[in-house]
Design goal:
Length: 237
């Protein structure tokens, strides 16, 4: 867990839950084909492990968009299609899921605003992280006083893509241009996200440098195909 003033940030891994293989064991992804009861139990256990009240985790229906909303409580029923959320309510955890895409957590504890974004290739190129910071500013945050943590994701040395896809992404966000360790076209989402955060004025940008494809303790769609989801979670105390 990372503490920044009155903000807390955490990234789960695949251990410590109740899901059976291939979702073993702390799968937090409700849109997988895992047993819904197991996912619900994993989510409740995760909230408790973080010291959050039951039912105080906000999950999104992630669709690789740049849509970000302000929230004051979890969504009733199925969440809307979103890839980022912002809150100023203490004790409300904002969760974004990953299994190669980057969970991005941002906090301005001095002004009491936090946000979380799911940044895959489409969302990153589409500007979801930029929109997250903009929504935080609309709610009173000062980017220069904020801390961002880019969570585990497929690294630039492993995230192989077609050459045309690399070129398309780099036209929008040049920092994403990369090459795999075996010499083929790739994308570096982490570098692109860090550049967007810096351009948005975020004063403190940190990284969890683990590559999901290389790290067995994390879920990875590219490595396993049929798998679960871990989460990045941010909240105010």
């Amino acid at each position: 867990m990372i503490s920044v003033g009155r903000a807390r940030m955490a990234f789960t891994d695949r251990h410590g839950g109740v899901s059976a293989a291939p979702f073993d064991s702390r799968n937090l992804g409700a849109l997988t084909s895992d047993d819904p009861a197991a996912v619900a139990e994993n989510r409740a256990k995760t909230a408790a492990d973080l010291g959050l009240a039951p039912g105080r985790l906000v999950f999104l229906r992630q669709v690789h968009s740049a849509e970000v909303v302000y929230v004051t409580e979890p969504f009733p029923g199925e969440p809307p299609a979103l890839d980022g959320a912002v809150t100023d309510r203490p004790g409300l955890g904002l969760a974004v899921l990953g299994a190669d895409c980057a969970p991005v957590l941002v906090a301005d504890p001095d002004n009491g605003v936090v946000g979380a974004a799911h940044a895959g290739r489409k969302g990153t190129v589409g500007g979801v992280v930029t929109e997250l910071v903009a929504e935080m500013v609309r709610r009173g945050a000062d980017p220069s006083r904020a801390t961002a943590v880019i969570g585990p994701a497929a690294c630039g040395g492993c995230y192989e893509v077609p050459a045309e896809m690399r070129e398309d992404a780099a036209r929008v966000l040049p920092e994403t241009w990369s090459t795999t360790t075996w010499g083929t076209p790739a994308l570096d989402l982490r570098a692109g996200i860090a550049a967007q955060l810096a351009r948005a004025g975020v004063g403190d940008v940190r990284h969890d440098d683990r590559c999901t494809i290389e790290s067995a303790e994390l879920f990875s769609h590219r490595r396993e195909q049929h798998t679960g989801r871990f989460a990045g979670i941010v909240w105010l105390v």
